[in-house]
Amino acid sequence: MAAELASQPETWARAAELRDEQALLPGSGARVAVVGCGTSWFIAQSYAWLREAGGHGETDAFAASEAFVDRGYDAVVALTRSGTTTEVLQLVEGLRGRVRTIGVIGDAASPLVGIVDDAVTLPFADEQSVVQTRFATTALALFRASLGERLDGPIADAERAVAEELDPELAGAEQYTFLGRGWSVGLAHEAALKMREASQSWTESYPSMEYRHGPISIAAPGRVTWHFGEAPDGLDAEVAATGARFEAGSLDPMAELVRAQRVALARARAQGLDPDEPRNLTRSVILA
């Protein structure tokens, strides 16, 4: 996990240059569903928001096991690192010959490559660790570049996130709540998942404006409320009043996720855990 995490500025830069692969993704005006499981579902949420908010077409994100794809979509994008996840394979198989499918896949030799209409493979971002870091963010870098976004700033922020000295207080908190708005909501969910997977930490995640509707009740001294992107007015003061630490993410939200990944790794090491092989988890969920 450590080496893969640190390589993200490089893999994002490579993804930004993949013009032919980006051209395989749905063009502007297409009505699209994006599906995935776990981490890939959260990245799908971010991509869907960016695509639709950017005026490129109606875009929905679904967990593959709960997807409503018979809604007249022009294309379905299936995001999966392994290309072997049962729910994704079953969904794509059911769409063959009916809807164009595009796979964004880490393993170029996986079975999904052979059943989608178009395969975008990112083998340079694939990982051995069970806990995803760089594949997820590299796929999102590819998506962002395909929508016409320049990634120079995010890559520079990621370099800072990888190099900065971690604050012991931030890494040693009792509890973390991650918040985001718009496209960073999916990244907040992903940050919480990384902390749970790698370090068995108590983490939660919400859209920023939902935080006041109950979840703020757990804010207290020794706990962290970590915001990705620009926070709603007054939220920092409300959190400070509880005694919790408000971590106002100043980097690009994707780079802020890298910071959270580093905290998860540090917490795992402090507890003697192996973040590459977390308990009860495998690299891919393959059902009988």
TrEMBL record:
The keyword Repeat applies. GO terms for molecular function: carbohydrate derivative binding; isomerase activity. InterPro entries: GlmS/AgaS_SIS, GlmS/FrlB_SIS, SIS_dom, SIS_dom_sf. Residues 20-154 form the SIS domain. It comes from Agromyces albus. Keywords: Isomerase, Repeat. PROSITE patterns: SIS. This is Sugar isomerase. GO terms for biological process: carbohydrate derivative metabolic process.
